[in-house]
């Protein structure tokens, strides 16, 4: 799979968790923000690039439950 291949929401969710793909979670993040970057080609045609899913996961790495991700803290 190429990092620029376009994935469906289900495929993107499987990249995040193969056992219990968080499809609704990704759908909610598209509405509220804070999720991975996505491509909106039409009203019903949404896709994700693998590299954007990977970048989003990397940006959410934490060292503890109290780590909010601020680099200045």
Would you summarize the structure shown here?
This protein is of the alpha+beta class and 73 residues long.
Polypeptide structure, described:
With 73 residues, the chain is an alpha+beta fold. It has one domain (6-58). Helices cover 38% and strands 11% of the residues. It is built from three helices and three strands, in the order βααββα. It has helices at 9-16, 23-32, 50-59; strands at 6-7, 39-40, 46-49. The chain has a three-stranded antiparallel beta sheet. Strand 2 (39-40) and strand 3 (46-49) form a beta hairpin. It starts with 5 loop residues before the first strand and ends in a 14-residue tail after the last helix. The model has no long low-confidence stretch (mean pLDDT 91).
Q: Regions with pLDDT < 50 over 5+ consecutive residues? A: none
Strand residues, percent = 5-15%
State the end-to-end distance. 37 Å
Helix share bin: 25-40%
The average pLDDT is: 91
How many helices? 3
User: Mind describing the biggest β-sheet?
Assistant: 3 strands, antiparallel
Overall domain count:
1
Structural class: alpha+beta
Order of helices and strands: EHHEEH
DSSP summary, beta strand count: 3
Q: Radius of gyration, Cα only, in angstroms? A: 13 Å
Shape: globular
Arrangement of strands in the largest sheet: 1-3-2
Task: Compile the SSE list and pairings.
Layout: E1 6-7, H1 9-16, H2 23-32, E2 39-40, E3 46-49, H3 50-59
Task: Pick out its properties.
3 helices, 73 residues, globular, 3-stranded antiparallel sheet, 38% helix, alpha+beta, single chain
